[in-house]
């Protein structure tokens, strides 16, 4: 799927780093390079890591950008819970992908969403953070991989975490993925997505088809990469994370989590804390 583009640059309402630290969380709209308005929020966090030791009450040099899964948005309780755990390890930027929540445009289910993530990463850099990591779930997990592979100037990342992501496109090997394809490809499915799931889905097919996650992974090096997947994931079986890890043997780690299901809902606070610790150590 793809959507039309227009000129423009990433735009946001930002404050200097120290002023943001005093005033606390910020809510704004960002404009992507292809002209879509993205709802975004910033939380300066509660802890800064210095040589691995947390110091309460200081603004972190690290910002963690959270990329939610399909049909999520920054207001969803499961996304807010993820952000709440990760704020212990640095500042957190959350945003709603295009077609989700209060953001503009229509979802292209992982294609043009790389522009949305890039706008959020640029915002974190503008806010003064010298280290920026991305943590993505399901669709967002595929987006963080494709975004990191681009090494885009001004929107580059220092560490990447992909949770419950597919390795390849058009996978229909599980019942949940067959239902998702019906939702995306059928007019009645897109109607259900719009009014039942608050997700506006683009009607056009991808043209051209973007590089798949497994094709993107080798290009991420030397940026540290963590791949997290549950062995009980109902959407993507364990051959997906193994394919991703095998595509990047020198710079990727694979955590195959026993008993874990899919994406944010299946990511417990203990796992999220482990991810936060990994990011704090490996980002930069």
Automatic annotation (TrEMBL):
Q: Does the keyword Hydrolase apply?
A: yes
Under Gene Ontology molecular function, one entry of this record is: hydrolase activity
Comp. bias intervals (Low complexity) = 1-13
Q: Extract the signal peptide range.
A: none
Stored Pfam families:
Abhydrolase_1
- Give the AB hydrolase-1 domain ranges: 63-165
The similarity comment for this entry is: Belongs to the AB hydrolase superfamily. FUS2 hydrolase family.
UniProt name for this protein: Alpha/beta hydrolase
Q: Which organism is it from?
A: Streptomyces cynarae
């Amino acid at each position: 799927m793809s959507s039309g583009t227009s000129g423009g640059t990433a735009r946001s309402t930002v404050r200097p780093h120290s002023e943001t630290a005093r005033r606390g969380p910020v809510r704004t709209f960002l404009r992507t390079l292809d002209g879509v308005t993205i709802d975004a929020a910033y939380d300066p966090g509660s802890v800064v890591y210095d040589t691995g030791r947390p110091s309460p009450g200081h603004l972190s040099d690290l910002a963690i950008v959270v990329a939610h899964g399909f049909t999520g948005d920054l207001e969803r309780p499961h996304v807010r819970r993820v952000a709440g755990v990760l704020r212990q390890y640095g500042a957190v930027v959350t945003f709603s992908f295009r077609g989700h929540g209060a953001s503009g445009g229509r979802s292209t289910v992982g294609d043009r969403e790389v522009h949305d993530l890039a706008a959020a990463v640029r915002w974190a850099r503008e806010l003064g953070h010298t280290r920026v990591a991305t943590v993505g779930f399901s669709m967002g997990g595929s987006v963080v991989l494709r975004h990191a592979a681009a090494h885009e100037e001004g929107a580059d990342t220092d560490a990447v975490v992909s949770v419950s992501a597919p390795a390849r496109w058009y996978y229909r090997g599980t019942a949940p993925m067959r239902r998702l394809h019906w939702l995306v490809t059928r007019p009645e499915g897109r109607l259900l997505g719009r009014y039942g799931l608050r997700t506006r889905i683009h009607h056009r097919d991808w043209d051209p088809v973007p590089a798949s996650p497994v094709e993107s992974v080798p290009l991420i090096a030397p940026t540290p990469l963590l791949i997290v997947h549950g062995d009980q994931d109902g959407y993507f079986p364990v051959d997906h994370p193994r394919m991703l890890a095998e595509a990047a043997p020198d710079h990727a780690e694979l955590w195959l989590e026993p008993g874990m299901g899919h994406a944010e809902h299946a990511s417990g606070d203990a796992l999220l804390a482990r991810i936060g610790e990994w990011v704090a150590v490996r980002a930069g």
